[in-house]
Amino acid sequence: MEIFIAQLLNGLSLGSIYVLLVTGFNLMVLVARIVQFAYPHFVVLSIYACWEVLQLTNNMFLAVLSCIAVSVILNVLSEPIFRRLTNRQDVDINASFVVSMAIALVITDIMSHSINHGFPIAFPTSWIGGNLVRFGLITLSKGQIYALVGGIIAVLIFFYLLYQTKQGRVFRAMAENRYAARLIGIPIVKASIFSYVIAGLLGGFIAILFSILLGSASPWLGEFIALKVIAVSIVAGLGNLKGGLVCGLLLGVVEAMAMGYISGSWSNAIAFIIMLLIILIKPQGLFGVKI
Amino acid sequence: MKKNNILKIKDLSVSYGPIKALKNTSLEVNEGEIVVLIGANGAGKTTLLKAILGIQKAQSGSIFFLGNDITHKATDKIVSLGICLIPEGHIIFSSMTVLENLQLGAYHNSQDMDKNLERVFGWFPVLRERSNQIAGTLSGGEQQMLAIGRGLISNPKLIIVDEPSLGLAPKTVSEIFSILAELNKKEGYTIFLAEQNAKKALEFGNRGYVMETGKVALQGTTRELMNNSKVRHAYLGSSV
Q: Is B107's Cβ below 8 Å from some Cβ in A?
């Protein structure tokens, strides 16, 4: 029983990170109209920036600030690259996928050669924290608590932005009909850039939570995560925000259960096999495509 | 008494590659008028409206709005200056509520939002009833009213309507036209309307332009046009 609860908590914490990643990814699909394969890579690069600043200054506040700043800058700088692909209403899946994969490869290369000589980075214990709560044999680490609580807060803020603010209405209008949004006077380019800013802020937040949860990062973390993020969003239904919430958590829990009950090295395979089966049965995804 | 000029189009030419959609078109709309643009499908009406809104680039000529040259300005700037387009096919955002659709129309001036909403609900009480309903569940006529309401919420200086009768039942079409006529008479809104249904358009407007293959073929008051034998023959179904 204790293994179950422990792995459930593991799964929900990891799932929380997946949920945030899929949400940022879906924002790009819906408003920017691109499939951003490199979004998780931007997150990993921000983790690296955070680590660098921590190494250089030992100042946690500065590290957090630079993490978020780097994430926003990376996302906003990528906007002009993708802008050419978004002249139509549809998401140009082929073109944006290829472009974003290219960006991802370049980033992975840079990290594996130039930062820390390609070795994985590890965060100091002061950053990672320790076990904060204990129920018998079950413990909750600082990373898990931050991931769970941070995830809930971020999702609440995101949905508030989307459904209760003027910019959120603009985003939803552009997601439904970009041309009509333009006709009624919405500044499409400005709004699109703002969606990259939001994705960047979210990405920076994800980087902080992830760095505390994992305690380390490697140049290949981006590749690893990106495949899962795309898979989850397709299984949930491309562009389906609410579906992404459910499926992100499910993926985390499935992986954690596989790790706890079967074997750590099979957890990825099991997760992907389940996703494959779902897509074969329901190609539109569990909750339906929303673009 | 000379009316103030709202919109002036001078020698506008628009081409789609080798196809000349508009050839040296000139027209004007003055304050308080209802000016109608009639012509067959493909005559260039929609191209002209798109050019005014900055969606379609003009190769030569100019467009002046309240004296400002808007020929090469961006769409969102043009809308913020006070032109609103009610596009063809009662385009609304079906996944959003009636209220949210209206709020989108006020993007460029969200102060006085409550006052502006009250105004629009006053003209279209059915929108007030359905304000929290998802716009996609409204009937065709109600969606057209929502599209018009959304355009009006920013208090535009010029309302451009593209084919309001498309896809609506005749009774609904009459309702829409009488609402537009009232908005012009009671509130003084200037209306520029493109319409395939020539009879309805000429009954509705003060002045008209007839477009044929990218050019203004005829112009005059709507009464003159209604009595013009060419117009009667080609557009009003007269066999005389």
A: yes
Judge whether B105 is closer than 8 Å to chain A, CB to CB.
Answer: yes
Cβ within 8 Å of residue A76, ≥6 positions away: A193, A196, A197, A200
Closest CA to A115 of A45, A213, A57, A175: A45
Q: B57 and chain A: CB distance < 8 Å anywhere? A: no
Task: Say if the Cβ atoms of A184 and B74 lie within 8 Å.
Answer: no
Ordered domains of chain B (ranges, CATH): 33-52+74-235 (3.40.50.300)
When CB atoms are compared, the residue of B76, B150, B154 closest to A187 is B76
CA dist., res. A227 & res. B179, Å (int)? 55
Residues with Cβ within 8 Å of A23's Cβ and at least 6 positions away in sequence, in order, are A154, A155, A158, A202, A241, A244, A245, A248
Put simply, whether B96 touches A (Cβ < 8 Å) is yes
What number is the average pLDDT over the span A90-107?
A: 89
Delineate the domains of chain A, giving CATH numbers in brackets.
2-281 (1.10.3470)
Assigned token pair, A26: 């879906």
On whether the CB atoms of residues B35 and B209 are closer than 8 A, the answer is: yes
Per-residue pLDDT tens over the stretch A241-284: 999 999 999 999 999 998 888 877 777 888 888 888 988 998 88
Chain A residues closer than 8 Å to B53 by CB = 183
The CB-side HSE value for B92 (13 A sphere, CA atoms) comes to 29
At B66-77, the pLDDT tens digits run: 999 999 999 999
Cβ proximity of A90 and A32 under 8 Å: no
CB pairs under 8 A between A and B: 60
Interchain CB distance below 8 Å, A176 and B94:
yes
Res. B12: pLDDT tops 70: yes
pTM across the whole model: 0.92
Complex confidence, ipTM = 0.91
